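3.2 Worked example (two chains)
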Amino acid sequence: MKKKFMHIRLVVFILLFCINAMGCQGKTPSVSFYALTPIAVPQNTSGGQGRLENVSIGIGPIHFPRTLQRPQIVTRPSANRLDLSEFHRWGGDLKQDFLNVLVQNISIITGSNQIFKYPWSPSFKPRYRVTLDVIQFDGRLGDTVLLNSIWEIKQGEPGNEKSEIKRSIIEQPISGEDYNALVKAKSDALKTLSVKITDKITVMDGT
């Protein structure tokens, strides 16, 4: 009788252990959400470049690769492979986030409050219009982010305008091994692109 009781206790213990183990395995890791961040506004200064404070600039439209138009953050562990993280996602639409931050950056750099994203109001007549084709905007965890884009700046009214087309390949080191460091590096790469675009507009505006 005692042996039978011990056997029952052992079976119950094993069953409870298995149920507990299955419960632990069934817990899904929480999802983390990320967003690109604009550059910081310089303290105690207007942050503008002076010459462009009263210049109107329209940003967009922007074209994004289809591989990036998804909620999961995409990394590139090798040249021909893409990884999608189910547990590290964008808090919104990456394409729109990119455009919003680009507008904020250029507004902060120039000090102008006349920077608007596409589509803008018909009453808005920008002196400069910037369109972008983003070819690559990904990276390898713990390594670098690559922002490869072609952008065009048009000056003047449609049909009577001059334009400049540039290509920027920006490699931004990632100062960490996690996704937070990856997203920060993406924001830094976008900051560099914002400076390049603003510098070109400054040159065009001075000619």
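3.2.1 Second chain
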Amino acid sequence: MHLWLRKFWHLLGNAIPIIYYFSSLSSKKAAFIMFIIFLCVFVLDVLRLIYHPFNHWFLNHFGILVKEKEKHAITGSTYYFLAISITIFFFPKNIATCAILYLTLGDPIAAIVGHYLPLTPIFKQKTLGGSLANFFTCLIIGVCFFPFIIALLGAITATLAELFSPIDDAISIPLCSALVLSIL
């Protein structure tokens, strides 16, 4: 149940790239707004980590949305808003939107499928089922923005970033994908 609630929370993150894509906001203004949100979330995370009563309150009210390893560390939301602000700032709207959707759709679908239909473990706690689900989700997203070959390479990049990233995949998926998409 916790997995589903956490992933539903992550799926709500799709509102940001969709609103950005259809808005008339410039990339600089949108990135600035996302950076302000990042700073707020970061400050709350830091306060939560240094002031234990606040962390206790936070975990009592929102703990179901937090991974076990994030209960006493920076949450994925902080990384998410940082990556979103950087991606929007440095890349054109279609590339940024696609790369962010790789994260907000591909990653939670990979986690759900990987949990219920793992097929076989392939790297750390990642599974073939989850990686295939991530790849096909990202491929479908990619073809909405780009020709098939570019979408294919973008989906491969997002899948590899989710699978092998040494840093939080909320940062690696959109940034690596956007970089590859912009080169193509």
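3.3 Remarks
The CA atoms of residues 37 and 81 lie 7 Å apart.
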